[in-house]
Specification:
Two copies of one chain form a homodimer. Chain A is mainly alpha-helical. The first copy, chain A, has two domains: about 50 residues, Arc Repressor Mutant, subunit A, CATH 1.10.10; about 170 residues, Tetracycline Repressor, domain 2 (Orthogonal Bundle), CATH 1.10.357. In chain A, about 70% of the residues lie in helices and about 0% in strands. Chains A and B meet through helix 6, helix 7, helix 8 and helix 9 of A and helix 6, helix 7, helix 8 and helix 9 of B. The first copy, chain A, binds a DNA duplex (30 and 30 nucleotides) through helix 3.
Chain lengths: ~220, ~220
Amino acid sequence: MARKSEEERRRDLIAATIREIGASGTLNVTTSQIAKSAGVSPGLAFHYFHDKDTLFLAAMRSILSEYKADVTHALAGARTPEDRVNAIVQASFGMGSFRREAISAWVNFYALALRSEEARRLLYLYQRRLHSNLVFALRPRIAERAPDVARRIGGLIDGLYLRYALDTKMLRPREEAVGEVDGSEGAQHVLRAIAAECTEVHENDDISMADADPAPMAPLAGPQE
Amino acid sequence: MARKSEEERRRDLIAATIREIGASGTLNVTTSQIAKSAGVSPGLAFHYFHDKDTLFLAAMRSILSEYKADVTHALAGARTPEDRVNAIVQASFGMGSFRREAISAWVNFYALALRSEEARRLLYLYQRRLHSNLVFALRPRIAERAPDVARRIGGLIDGLYLRYALDTKMLRPREEAVGEVDGSEGAQHVLRAIAAECTEVHENDDISMADADPAPMAPLAGPQE
DNA sequence: CGTCATTAATTGACTCGTCAATCAATAACT
DNA sequence: AGTTATTGATTGACGAGTCAATTAATGACG
């Protein structure tokens, strides 16, 4: 056998893919660019990933599992339900998610979901996990209202993420001085919204009784792949 | 002069651009495709729009002003503040915004904003208008808390739009049976969130006093272009 | 310990198609 | 006749994916 293990090479290529998507802000990245950034020849990318879309989907899985790891880590030290909510929100707006690379990847993956079944599936997986985590964290406070509220909070997280992520971009035309990007304001907003939802007197109940958590799975219990 | 007026041609080409973006789900659409769809030769697209990015930005402006028109129209019949809030939400989740074309355009424009200053500016313009409208509609109910709440509601609208728009896509692999796509569940969620925010007792106030509506402009007062 | 055969990773030149943008020619109008 | 929209063939560049050749490792055998 030669130089590096398959696993290592795949990791390198995926990392390079994310790096290049981050640098260009597009999925219009040539395999040559990616290969060069990974320090290999263009042909090798096709050896390990059959085509470009496969490489993109692998990159997407990587971003998703990185986010999952962030959440899991943040959740590890949380004991109270409040802590749990905080952990989820902090992870979503933390440094990890606000790197230029991650932002670029997320936004472009949303667009990819329009034409790729698999991308859509992965995005859906992310949403289900987020929802599940939120329900688990919110149930002690608001019981059966949790699924309904969680759906809104999930949407709010995505929406505010998008806004602050693009705002960030707006303020940094050149990519110097990166790093201190900040999602904490977004996090604050989410926590406020949760406070509001938990305080409300609820005359009108669930919008969708249909999916009121049929199998209340533990947070992050789903298989990654 | 020949066949059609400049304005008409531009309109045709912009419409064709949106149509093609909608059909493909990408900005990777050739000028030939667009031209063909508009019933003209490829060269003409470059005559009226200097290059492809210009055409995309024109398409984005078109989508934005269409949305603006929807909101304005919905707002026209609204007399009470409640009506105003409803109008904004209904427009955001209405038929106009949930056409395949519109969804595809919006999502791809978010991605475009990562690399185009101008796209970012346009998106920012949209956000400011939405915020402004929300503040105007919410102020009677919650006074000085309006700007803060409006920021969250704006984010929530974007986030839920994205979710339901992509869900929609998920359920319709083939583009037959389109049309009856539905954003009303998203709208319901937004109204719930607003109810929750308006009910809350507010111990802790604005997250950002800085921009507490320095010039309380009327809704949709800003110049379109 | 060498040396050579075997196996597998890695290369990069190449193919074939595609596409943005141009421009000289033409058609439609006044 | 003169003006202006419109055409579509063309160019030049570029990029995805292929493949035959090359290089590095492993180990078998002396």
